[in-house]
Design a protein that fits this description.
single chain; 168 residues; mainly alpha; 3 helices
Length: 168
């Protein structure tokens, strides 16, 4: 005969608690849509309704345009009133604008013109150097033509500057 031995019952082991699973937000429940029964729908009644809807829409448009016109007229009246008030205030206030002395103006113009002449002289000197270096790289015949053209341009610039000086 076989003897059976009882084994001791195994102890239940508990696992250490790990991080709790993050809860997902529950989805909102969608409302149930009402059912619509169109079995008794009469399309012939829509013809009269169509004209009524168009009439109401037209009336609403006319009313909106009317309010817009009234608002524009009101704004125009307000603008005219403000214009009158400003004109009255302008006439009541006397402005005394100091007139500049002619000698002061002449001195300022001459000073500014002198500064301009100094800048033009520096520009002409730079231009002359550039043309001379260009002439040296050209063949003799072309160099002569460029030199003559440059001399004529210098003479013309001097004449123009002399006329401007005499005018000032």
């Amino acid at each position: 005969m076989a003897t059976t031995t009882k084994r001791p019952a195994a102890k239940a082991t508990t696992k250490p608690a790990s991080k709790p699973a993050s809860k997902l937000p529950s989805m909102p429940k969608m409302p149930t849509m009402p059912s619509v029964d169109l079995s008794n729908f009469d399309a012939a009644k829509l013809a009269d309704l169509d004209d009524k809807v168009v009439s109401v829409a037209r009336d609403a448009a006319y009313i909106t345009i009317g309010f817009g016109v009234l608002a524009a007229q009101k704004a125009q009246v307000k603008r005219r009133e403000l214009g009158k008030q400003m004109t009255e205030k302008m006439h009541s206030v006397k402005f005394e604008v100091p007139t500049p002395n002619v000698d002061d103006v002449k001195h300022t113009v001459e000073t500014q013109f002198s500064k301009l002449e100094a800048r033009l002289d520096a520009l002409e000197a730079t231009l002359d150097k550039a043309v001379e270096s260009f002439e040296q790289r050209l063949p003799d015949q072309a160099s002569t033509l460029v030199g003559q053209a440059h001399d004529m341009a210098k003479a013309a610039r001097k004449q123009v500057r002399g006329l401007v000086r005499s005018a000032v």
